[in-house]
Amino acid sequence: MARDRSRNKCAVIPDDNLRKEWRQFARQEFERNREVDDLSQIRYLISTGKTQFDEMRRYAEERAIATKALNEKI
């Protein structure tokens, strides 16, 4: 999951700082849950992680659109 998200989604995020922040967040989550061995819990964590990532991506897209609109007005 991390590889998929990192390669496909973060690669297209133009903001380097945001991309680094997302990767750091994902690494911390994987490290925090390293000891989980229950399959249902792992599935839950993957599902939750995908949802969180999609929400962060939408936020970044909205922020980029707002920034672009603001810059066009100036």
User: Could you give the distance between the termini?
Assistant: 40 Å
pLDDT < 50 stretches = none
Q: What's the number of extended β-strand segments?
A: 0
Radius of gyration: 15 Å
Explain this structure:
By secondary structure, the protein is an all-alpha fold. The protein is elongated and about 55 Å long.
Layout of secondary structure:
Elements: H1 2-8, H2 16-32, H3 39-73
Tags for this model:
74 residues, mainly alpha, 3 helices, 80% helix, 0% strand
What's a quick, concise take on this entry?
Helix content is 80%, strand content 0%. It has three helices and no strands.
